[in-house]
Amino acid sequence: MLTFTTLFQNSPSCPETTSSSSLFLASFLAAAASSGSVQDELITLSTGAMVPLPAHGVVGNFSEEEKEFWKQPDNQGYMPCLDFSLKYRKASAKISKEKRKFLVVVASGGLNQQRNQIVDAVVIARVLEAALVVPVLQVNHIWGDDSEFSDIFDVEHFKKTLKADVRVVASLPSTHFVSKQTINSELPFHVSPLWLRAKFLKQLNQESLLILKGLDSKLSKNLPPDLQKLKCKVAFHALRFATPIRELGYQIARRIWIEGPYVAIHLRLEKDVWIRTGCLTGLGRQYDSIISRERESHPEYLTGKLNMTHAQRRLAGICPLNASEMARFLKGLGAPSSARIYVAGGEPFGGTQAMQPLQKEFPNLVTKHTLARNGELTPYMEKSSTLGAIDYIVSLNSNVFINSYGGNMGRALEGHRAYVGHRKYIKPNKRMLLPYFEDSSVGEKEFKRIMKKLHIKSQGQPEPRTNKIDRDVIAYPVPECMCKQ
């Protein structure tokens, strides 16, 4: 909220915004404050969340089809409401002051994979009633990023926001260092609070130290309501990016936002994605041969069923949409050719050639590199997590977000955009739409009708987590973390 206020001081006039944005911001403060029991926490919650710039209105020189594309979904009155139970708050008095038992967690993977593990680490510390040492980020060998927690996230804000839930300390006390310590890395999937207590509580009470590694997606998605709220509190309030990253991300976002509404697309066209998915790049035999050779030399990288052909993988929805497919998908949804398109993600395999089909249909194509000025990104060129954080911020601020592949960033933004007012979020239904890409008998008008029909129910409107089992509350914060005011 502080960032929001700062950005709008002395800002030039902008296109008319929807009234729901102002209503949401006012309600957001009240709803966030309801989760605090002391003044310090109330202040932290009400100023700590990353709130996007207001969505632009759809008035002005737009056709009816374009207005429909930019129109935000009905949030049905849902607002954040982290109302922890009396039992939870009573237990907090003891847990938040724990000074004997400590949990150390090693988080691996890319930025959003690490964020997921950090969220789970806080929940596990709460379940085991242990103090949490600021998580250790394992060096990312794929991207060569050796960033520490404090390089990416605001440590003091993290500690203050969670001080009523768990005690967070910067480092392990010297009294707990031992010459040899067991690192637990063999966790099964879908572990429950009961399993965690049965497995680790005795060890933790005896040794006063527990080190966990390999948490990725291991914690159950179906937790008690208070723990679901805690996950939202960590993801949407406590895990705020470090000030330099946050300020730069909002500066870059504002440069495109000030021009009017824009679409953010997370295109996963990096080399490692093509290797892992077993898909064809769409760039021709030369590029596909390079991917095939690397895949054959590292068969362990391939995900999914090994006996599927390239075509079967594509039609099963395993492959990301390439630039040509994304261009047709956008046109099918009614996006105007003048639309500003922000492309999030790493360097695409094939460079500018890979992006040409999208650039041809939508000339106003930008990235963080084209929007940055005067070497702003230079200090972070070898820091993939920081570059990913900037993409996250710019994507959060977009009017429309489209995720071409899935993955951790897509799920994180799905939940974050829901939490801040259900901003438009479109998930391509690849299994259903790809056959129409292949059918040359389908005319452009009919193709548009089909695309809109296929995606009318997946545009960011409230979708309860309870509709399907094993959904993550971070991606679907209704109903545990949001309620109707």
From TrEMBL:
Pfam assignment, any one: O-FucT
GO biological process: fucose metabolic process
Recorded metabolic or biological pathway in which this protein acts: Glycan metabolism
GO terms, molecular function: glycosyltransferase activity
Keyword Transport: no
Locations listed in the record: Membrane
Gene Ontology CC, one term: membrane
Family designation: Belongs to the glycosyltransferase GT106 family.
Alphabetical list of PANTHER family matching this protein: O-FUCOSYLTRANSFERASE 37, OS02G0726500 PROTEIN-RELATED
Name of the protein: O-fucosyltransferase family protein
Organism in which the protein naturally occurs: Anisodus tanguticus
